[in-house]
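The records we work with from here on pair a chain with its fold. Taken together, the tokens spell out the fold as the letters spell out the chain. The record below shows the convention in full.
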Amino acid sequence: MNIKRIFGAVLTVLGIAALFYAANLFLTTTSGGNQNTKMLITYGVLGLLFFATGISLVRATKDES
């Protein structure tokens, strides 16, 4: 059981969830409110960061069993 791979998978799933939430905010926003724009940027950036970090951890960790 490799803890880095598990952590990478969790980060990847969190990143995907944050990106889906940002996409949902983008699609459901009817007015260009300042609060919605801040939330959209925040969730989008965090989603990309978590997703990229998770994929990087999964790819860089070698299977040693």
